[in-house]
Specification:
Layout: E1 5-9, H1 16-30, E2 33-40, H2 43-46, H3 56-79, E3 88-92, H4 95-105, E4 110-115, H5 127-133, E5 139-144
Parallel strand pairs: 1-2, 1-4, 2-3, 4-5
Helix pairs in contact: 4-5
């Protein structure tokens, strides 16, 4: 199967390079369009047990700043792999949900995502990669993240 639309999901850690490099290689081999995405979790999701109502305006400011910083970082990182600004996307929400939704919207036929491959069957792919895999409209390539050696 030839891939034409590839979506690479990264979390903006130093490990993102490994995932982007793999996605870029596949896109080159397949002559496919490559888009990148990162997802910022809303404050209410990160701190679900707290009453956020008294901090609503601060939460919005925090999320706006988080989105701005994520956009800046993703643009810089994506440019290193030939991904233009129009194809570097930042979403706010649940990472798995937003990645699946964007894959459907953009008619992606492959999602590339990193996985830590932690111990135990339940952690085989990692929580986000595992959640993306369930109900996704296309193929998924899970890139095993290798620990950085210092």
């Amino acid at each position: 199967m030839a891939y034409k639309q590839i979506l690479v999901a990264v979390d903006l850690t130093e490990e993102a390079d490994e995932v982007l490099a793999t996605a870029h290689s596949v896109a080159d081999q397949q002559d496919a369009r490559l888009r990148s995405v990162t997802v910022v979790k809303p404050l209410t999701q990160a701190y679900g047990g707290l009453d956020m109502a008294p901090m609503a305006s601060d939460a919005v400011s925090f999320e706006e700043e988080a989105l701005r910083q994520a956009r800046d970082q993703l643009l810089e990182l994506s440019a290193e792999y030939g991904i233009g600004a129009d194809d570097a996307l930042v979403r706010l929400g649940s990472p798995a949900h937003e990645i699946r939704a964007l894959a459907a919207e953009s008619e992606a036929d492959l999602i590339v995502i990193g996985t830590h491959g932690k111990h135990g069957l339940g952690l085989l792919l990692g929580s986000t990669a595992n959640a993306v895999l369930h109900g996704v409209p296309c193929d998924v390539l899970a890139v095993k993240i290798h620990p950085l050696t210092g």
